[in-house]
């Protein structure tokens, strides 16, 4: 990922606040981390730009491993981790879905 795509502190704070009341949309379970799972995340983020995921107790991976897998294999940014929950952000490519990124970009 290029450094100019990294979020600044103010942007991360906005995203964390925006995600506060969200419920996790995806889980990492015993099937672990796969390309198909990443494709699902990317599709969801194209529509929403900001989602939460959680690691189930049965997951064979740690939060740090999950974060690294996501960031190393996609252009998705992990904005925050709280316990077994990760907050993910990726600007939508379709302008109609850029409700959050248009605000974040102007910060």
UniProtKB/TrEMBL annotation:
<protein>
    <submittedName>
        <fullName>RNA-binding protein</fullName>
    </submittedName>
</protein>
<dbReference type="GO" id="GO:0003723">
    <property type="term" value="F:RNA binding"/>
</dbReference>
<keyword id="KW-0694">RNA-binding</keyword>
<dbReference type="InterPro" id="IPR051925">
    <property type="entry name" value="RNA-binding_domain"/>
</dbReference>
<feature type="domain" description="CRM">
    <location>
        <begin position="5"/>
        <end position="101"/>
    </location>
</feature>
<dbReference type="Pfam" id="PF01985">
    <property type="entry name" value="CRS1_YhbY"/>
</dbReference>
<dbReference type="InterPro" id="IPR001890">
    <property type="entry name" value="RNA-binding_CRM"/>
</dbReference>
<dbReference type="InterPro" id="IPR035920">
    <property type="entry name" value="YhbY-like_sf"/>
</dbReference>
<dbReference type="InterPro" id="IPR017924">
    <property type="entry name" value="RNA-binding_YhbY"/>
</dbReference>
């Amino acid at each position: 990922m290029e450094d100019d795509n990294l979020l600044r502190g103010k942007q991360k704070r906005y995203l964390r606040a925006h995600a506060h009341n969200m419920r996790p949309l995806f889980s990492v379970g015993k099937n672990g981390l796969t390309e198909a799972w990443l494709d699902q995340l990317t599709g969801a983020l194209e529509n929403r730009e900001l989602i939460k995921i959680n690691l189930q107790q049965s997951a064979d991976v740690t939060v740090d491993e999950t974060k690294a897998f996501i960031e190393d294999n996609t252009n998705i940014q992990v904005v925050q981790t709280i316990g077994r929950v990760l907050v993910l952000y990726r600007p939508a490519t379709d302008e109609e879905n850029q409700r959050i990124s248009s605000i974040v970009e102007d910060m």
